[in-house]
Amino acid sequence: MKTLSIGMAIAAAWLLAGCVSTGTPQSQAQPKLAAKYNVQLGVAYMQQGRLDLALKKLQRALKQDPNLAEAHTAIALVYEKRGDIGLADQHYRRALDIAPHDPKTLNAYGVFLCRHNKVDQSEKYFLAAAANPDYDTPEAAYTNAGVCLLKIGKQTRAEADFRQALKAQPDYPDALWQLARLSFDEGKHLRARAFLQRFMAHNRQPHAEVLWLAARNERALGDQDQARKFAGELIAKFPRSAEARLARKMTGNGG
């Protein structure tokens, strides 16, 4: 689910304050606007880690508009963060009862199910989200599906989902990274190199994990110069990382 910024919440507050009748009685229109405003505030508080305040705002939103799907999705996230998994599941399901084809809610529920090891259930929600032509980031849902499948060792199906993500967005970094890792683990080092090159072309500041994989992959391919180059970059940029300690061992620069 895309969250809403504090700035957007302030804009919504301004809109609510200026609400006038435009054909709908104000007494009916205001609660729905107030509910949306409280959802935005609740999400902002959640982003700040202020879960008690977030919960109060979202509970108020649901009193104002019990059929606001985004309020159910947001409060589900809060309940999950608080460890109330049963309540979280109830609100995700209610959101989908109200808006069964909403791709953001489908993807969010898929993430929730995956986090709680319900992989087979999660996949259908990810794929339903990705298949919705109105979803602006289907590559994210496909990648989520693949990552979740890897949790239960379904590499072939995961790879298919990552490749679907790249069909939707050819330079999507998360899918490129997952395919690079998967290729390396399967001993397909030329393929891993290609995915890493594509990933680095769009990520000029690769993290330690990326550089360490690149160093190991080049060593597996027999290119020791490139392996040392990646290892050296890793040590220089992330000297305190666990990967840098391993790279020092690779290059003989101490443990």
Can you walk through the features of this model?
- This protein is an all-alpha fold and 255 residues long.
- The chain contains 14 helices and no strands.
- The protein starts with 5 loop residues before the first helix and ends with a helix.
- It has helices at 6-17, 26-47, 51-64, 69-82, 85-98, 103-115, 119-131, 138-150, 155-168, 173-185, 189-202, 208-221, 224-237, 242-251.
- It is 76% helix and 0% strand.
Task: List the keywords.
elongated; 255 residues; 76% helix
**How much helix, percentage-wise, in residues?**
over 70%
DSSP strand content: under 5%
Query: What sequence of helices (H) and strands (E) makes up the elements?
Result: HHHHHHHHHHHHHH
Q: Structural class of the helix and strand makeup? A: mainly alpha
Count every helix, treating DSSP H or I runs of 4 or more residues as helices: 14
Sheet of most strands = none
Q: Which value, in Å, is the CA radius of gyration? A: 23 Å
Termini separation comes to 43 Å
User: What general form does the structure show?
Assistant: elongated
Extended strand count: 0
Runs in which pLDDT lies below 50 for 5 or more consecutive residues are 1-28
Q: Give the integer mean of the pLDDT values.
A: 87
